Amino acid sequence: MVVLSAAICTKTGKALMSRQFVEMTRIRIEGLLAAFPKLLGSDSKQHTFVETESVRYVYQPMENLYLLLITNKASNIIQDLDTLRLLSKVVPDVAGTANNLTEEKVTDKCFELLFAFDEVITAGGYREPINLQQIRTNLEMESHEEKLHKMIQISKMESARDQAKDAAKVIRERQRDMAKQGISMQGIGGGGPTYSDQSSVQSTSFREPERESVPVYSESRKPAAVKGMSLSSKGTKNKSLEDALMTEDKLAPVVSSRATVGHTAAVEPQHAVVQQPVMLAVTEKINARITRDGVVETFEIKGSLSLTVSNDDAGLCSVQMKSGSNVDQFTFNTHPKINKGAYDKSGLLQLKDTNKGFPSARPVGILKWAFSTNSDSDMIPIKINCWPEEESRGNMIVSIEYSMDVPSLTLHDVDIHIPLGTASPINVVTVDGSYKHSASNHEVVWQLPLIDSSNSTGSFEFTIKQNSTDAFFPINVNFSSPQLFCAVDVASVTTTDGASPIQYGITKLMSSDEYTIE
Predict the structure, then answer these.
(1) DSSP summary character for residue 360
(2) pTM of this prediction?
(3) CA-to-CA dists, residue 138 to 3, 115, 133, 178, 187, angstroms
(4) What is the pLDDT at residue 228?
């Protein structure tokens, strides 16, 4: 069969949308669509066709519209009617209406309908072996990378929100303590200007290092002496000196030394800026080799923690880890520049030389862990059971089942690659989820977007022309998850002296590396 065009038009011949699958000029397709209503007889049927000297119209009424296929006269009418029936299901499914199809709804969904028509009919006018469920899946255009990116973004946003709350709380407490100190010093020294207010406000600047070692009125900071009489007041001199200090040290604007406690508290929102000077990434890679009989030959988990700082000041940091119940099953190794004694004693990750910081603007691995076994383990995320059985006349029936026995685990974007050893098409009996047959790669991919406790088991059964049971192995499995096997987490990130917390963001990802059933 060769379909020249698929269109939706009104009963008067007005084209609402049309998709050509062969080279056709606009004038010709408009002429064919305009001539269609004149060729219709008075008899109305559910499925019918009209022929001219050059083309055949195969159409179906849909409310006040017509779903129309224009084919050549040599096309197989049975296949054309089958294509028409599928398109008659696709149109209301895409347009979002079953019993009230109108011109406005077709116009609003015209591009989606074009994409759906392309899934049914290929370029050149040939029918694709596809059903309505597969069309829906293809139109959704789900991407593993997009889902992973969204998961990471959501994790970053939640982490930033939590860290911002913690940082804001610390800043308010420090502001309150400094304000109390300023009140007591002013009461002792009288009403004159004090230096405690200025140091208080500087200490609340967002993650700026305190510069207590440099006195405000040291000799090196005094401006050059001015000859002659100066008409500026003492307060003006103090103000100029503060401005010079702020310009040199790149500090936030400070209030006057005569400012009250209320004025100091008023500038607090200015410093509580949401930032992420430190970013942490926790990843785990899963490697497994399992026989077709279910015997575990190797099972490995390799995890790592990497750190990225945005600037040199943030690089002067320490990471405090916290451990869960199963960490004793894993072997941990720190980077050679990390103080291993401090980590073994209290779980603190910091450089041996605390005067030096982590390099900025690039990720640095600071901790690794591993787990390995050659026997069955309760941490194996997914098990595959494949049973190919020979039928008569060189056909094989293949039954595949997956099971996930790890409680509370969630797997995303699970792809099970099953080799076929032939380009012959498969005949699907039952499938949980969806599948994609690749004739060029001689394989079928069983796709499950999500596996959790609600669908911890599933099956896929199909038949195919094949004589060897070994053709369906090895089976490769790909998956990802935001949950980790090792119960290790980051408790806090602080400066190297532990005096101040530092905001941080963290991402977690567990994924398969080489997961094979042989």
Answers:
(1) B
(2) 0.49
(3) 21, 10, 9, 61, 75
(4) 46
